[in-house]
C-alpha cells in the first residue's frame, strides 16, 4: 500500500511509526510496552498479543476484563486464522425464565445479562496453538501490574469516574459491593496519576497462567464464579463453564478495490462492515472531503446495519447464509437504493443462493488482530469477590421477541459488537486494524479502510481523520472538525446532523500494516491514551 506520510490536509496529531523487528499498537502505553517486552524476550506476535490483552484487563479495566469475550484474526505461515472466544447464554437462561421473573427486556446490569466469559480461553488457545513462550511468562507483566499497581492514565481516569457515577446511582444491591471494593476502594474512582492495584486480579491471572485457563473453567475460579452466581440468583453455573470451548472459525471477506478485507463471521458484527464496503465499491470517490463521499458512506452503513441487525446472531441459528448476504447481486440491489437524499433504512431480502483493541506483528511475518471487551465499559457491574473478575453483560443484546433472529435461547451466542479486522492483497498480509466502540466499530472499519485505500492516507492519518457515526433513523453524529460546509450540505440532504463535542464515542483504533519494503508501519488512536511500541 502506497501513501504519502504527510499528504493529509488536516494536521495529524502524530506521525506513523516505522519499525522492522516487531510492533504492538493498543490504547494504553503500559500494555503496548508489555507486548513489546514479550517480543524482545523471544516471543512472537501471538505471545505479544496475549500479553497485551491480559495487561489491558489491568491497566484499562474501564473497557475490558477477565470476565469478558475476545475475538482474534491471526496471520501465520501465509494463512489467516479466526478465533471466536465469545461465550453463550447460560443453559438456564431462557425467555420463559425471564418472563416468569417479571422481565420485559434484558437489563444492562446485574446477573441476568451475564454470559459465559471467553477471554481467558482465547489466551490459552492462542498460546497453545501458535505461541512460543509459556503462558506463565506471557502473563507476567499483567500479573505484576495487578499486584504492584500502576498510575492511572488520563483517558482511563475520565472513563473510570464516569462509570463510578453511573454504578453508584444504579448498582445499589448487595451483589454489586465487590465492584466498589475493587474499583473504588477509597469510596471514589482513582484520580489520574494515582496508583491502583488489585491483588485478587493478580491471583486470578496467576492461576490462569499456571493452568492454561483450566482453573477458570474447571477449577477453583470456576467454583468461585458459580458460588457467587448462586448466592444472588444468577443463571451462570459451573456447568456452563465446564462445557465452554472457544471456536476456530473461517474468516469472511470481500474484495475492495483489489484488497481483501477480512472479518470474523457471525455472531460478530464484522459482517456489517463487509456489507457496507460491498455496496460502496460500486461508487467512485474522487475526494475524501466531499459531501457525496460522506453521504454515500452514511447511506451504505445504514443499509448494512438494517440487514445486520435483522440477521446477525449465533451462526448456527442464522436463517440465511453469509454468502447470500455478501453476494454481488444483493450488494447491487442495496446500492440502487442510495439516492441524493437520506433514506430510512429497512432490511433487504437477499437473492436465493465499552472494548479494547490491539494489533501486533513480528519480524517472522506473524500478525495478530485482537479485540476483547466486557461491553458497556466495566460490563455488568459485578465483580466476583476476591478475584478481580468483572463479569460481562453481553446478554443485554439478546431479544426477547420470539420471532427475532437474535432471540434469547439457552446456550446461544448473541449478536456481538466487537470485531477485529485484517487486510490482505494478492494473498499476502498487509496487516491488522480495528476500531473499538460498540456499534461504531463497523462504521470505523469502513472509514479507516476507505481512508487508506480510496484516499491513500497513511495508518496514522487514517485514524486521525474526522469521523461520523450513524445512530438511528436519520440521526448522524459527526466530530466537530468535519468541515462546516459538508455538515450543512448533509443536513440539506435530509440527515439529522448532530455535531458532537465528545470524540470518545467515535471509536478508538489501531493499525499495523507492512509496506512494500517489508517494513512495519503503525498508527494509534488520538482519541485515547494510544501507543505504538516498536523495535
TrEMBL record:
The organism of origin for this protein: Fodinisporobacter ferrooxydans
Pfam family, one: G_glu_transpept
Superkingdom field: Bacteria
Alphabetical list of Gene3D superfamilies matching this protein: 1.10.246.130, 3.60.20.40
Name recorded for this polypeptide: Gamma-glutamyltransferase family protein
Segments passing through the bilayer: none
Amino acid at each position: 500500500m502506497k501513501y504519502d506520510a504527510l499528504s493529509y490536509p488536516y494536521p495529524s496529531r502524530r506521525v506513523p511509526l516505522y519499525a522492522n523487528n516487531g510492533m504492538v499498537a493498543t490504547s494504553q502505553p503500559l500494555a503496548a510496552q508489555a507486548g513489546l517486552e514479550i517480543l524482545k524476550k523471544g516471543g512472537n506476535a501471538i505471545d505479544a498479543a496475549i500479553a497485551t490483552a491480559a495487561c489491558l484487563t489491568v491497566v484499562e479495566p474501564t473497557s475490558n476484563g477477565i470476565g469478558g469475550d475476545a475475538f482474534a484474526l491471526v496471520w501465520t505461515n501465509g494463512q489467516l486464522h479466526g478465533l471466536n472466544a465469545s461465550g453463550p447464554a447460560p443453559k438456564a437462561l431462557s425467555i420463559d425464565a425471564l418472563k416468569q421473573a417479571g422481565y420485559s427486556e434484558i437489563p444492562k446490569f446485574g446477573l441476568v445479562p451475564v454470559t459465559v466469559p471467553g477471554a481467558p480461553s482465547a489466551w490459552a488457545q492462542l498460546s497453545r496453538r501458535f505461541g512460543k513462550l509459556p503462558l506463565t511468562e506471557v502473563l507476567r507483566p499483567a500479573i505484576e501490574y495487578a499486584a504492584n499497581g500502576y498510575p492511572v492514565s488520563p483517558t482511563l481516569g475520565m472513563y473510570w469516574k464516569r462509570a463510578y457515577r453511573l454504578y453508584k446511582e444504579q448498582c445499589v444491591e448487595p451483589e454489586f459491593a465487590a465492584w466498589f471494593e475493587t474499583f473504588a476502594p477509597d469510596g471514589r474512582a482513582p484520580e489520574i496519576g494515582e496508583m491502583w492495584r488489585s491483588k485478587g486480579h493478580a491471583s486470578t491471572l496467576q492461576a490462569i497462567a499456571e493452568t492454561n485457563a483450566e482453573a477458570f473453567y474447571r477449577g477453583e475460579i470456576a467454583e468461585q464464579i458459580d458460588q457467587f452466581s448462586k448466592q444472588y440468583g444468577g443463571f451462570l453455573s459451573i456447568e456452563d463453564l465446564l462445557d465452554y470451548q472457544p471456536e476456530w472459525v473461517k474468516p469472511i471477506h470481500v474484495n475492495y478495490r483489489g484488497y481483501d478485507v477480512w472479518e470474523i463471521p457471525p455472531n460478530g458484527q464484522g459482517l456489517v462492515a463487509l456489507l457496507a464496503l460491498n455496496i460502496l465499491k460500486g461508487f467512485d470517490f474522487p475526494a475524501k472531503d466531499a459531501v457525496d463521499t460522506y453521504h454515500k458512506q452514511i447511506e451504505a452503513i445504514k443499509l448494512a446495519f438494517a440487514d445486520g441487525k435483522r440477521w446477525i446472531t449465533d451462526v448456527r441459528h442464522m436463517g440465511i447464509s453469509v454468502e447470500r448476504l455478501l453476494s454481488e447481486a444483493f450488494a447491487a440491489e442495496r446500492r440502487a437504493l442510495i439516492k441524493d437524499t437520506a433514506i430510512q433504512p429497512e432490511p433487504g431480502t437477499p437473492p436465493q443462493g465499552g472494548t479494547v483493541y490491539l494489533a501486533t506483528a513480528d519480524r517472522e511475518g506473524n500478525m495478530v488482530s485482537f479485540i476483547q471487551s466486557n461491553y458497556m465499559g466495566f460490563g455488568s457491574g459485578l465483580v466476583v469477590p476476591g478475584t478481580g473478575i468483572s463479569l460481562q453483560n453481553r446478554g443485554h443484546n439478546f431479544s426477547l421477541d420470539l420471532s427475532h433472529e437474535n432471540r434469547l435461547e439457552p446456550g446461544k451466542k448473541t449478536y456481538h459488537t466487537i470485531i477485529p479486522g485484517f487486510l490482505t492483497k494478492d494473498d499476502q498480509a498487509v496487516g491488522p486494524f480495528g476500531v473499538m466502540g460498540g456499534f461504531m466499530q463497523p462504521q470505523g472499519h469502513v472509514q479507516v479502510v476507505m481512508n487508506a485505500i480510496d484516499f491513500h492516507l497513511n495508518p496514522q492519518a487514517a485514524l486521525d481523520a474526522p469521523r461520523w457515526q450513524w445512530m438511528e433513523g436519520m440521526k448522524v453524529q459527526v466530530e466537530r472538525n468535519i468541515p462546516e460546509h459538508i455538515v450543512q450540505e448533509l443536513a440539506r440532504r435530509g440527515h439529522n446532523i448532530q455535531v458532537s463535542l465528545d470524540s470518545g464515542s467515535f471509536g478508538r483504533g489501531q493499525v499495523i500494516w507492512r509496506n512494500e519494503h517489508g517494513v512495519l508501519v503503525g498508527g494509534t488512536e488520538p482519541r485515547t491514551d494510544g501507543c505504538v511500541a516498536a523495535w
